[in-house]
Amino acid sequence: MKRIMAVGVFDLLHAGHLHYLEQAKSLGDFLTVVVAHDDTVRKRKHEPVTGQDLRRRMVEGLKPVDEAVVGNSPDVPIFDILPRVKPDIIALGYDQEHAEEKIRSYLANNGFGNIKVTRVEGLTDDLDGTRKIIAKILERSRSN
To answer: Which one of 18, 29, 76, 127 has the largest count of C-beta atoms within 10 Å of its C-beta?
Structure first.
């Protein structure tokens, strides 16, 4: 069985998230999604609109997802979750700002060299990201 791991915030779930997870699932048999911890979202992006437990539940309800877990808080090393998930492949979203080579190097240097890292294709829709959706809502509210 080939295990896939996908990661993300998944705040304001949208079609781009579903597409990412469908693409990730197509890489193997069992998809575990790591939903970012609220404190990680605050530190790296913004105040989450929905809390980590609700985001995890929403993601777990999507058809391609076999399991969803909340990631570590930012004071715990990001890759500490790997022994729990045991992925064969880490699937990155097309717009995630992760440096693939940096991840590969970390994996190789820390006993996880057997894990592949791949980036999936994006959705060819103009509303495939949370920021794009919020911008469109704000644009429409200003014009009304």
So the answer is: 18
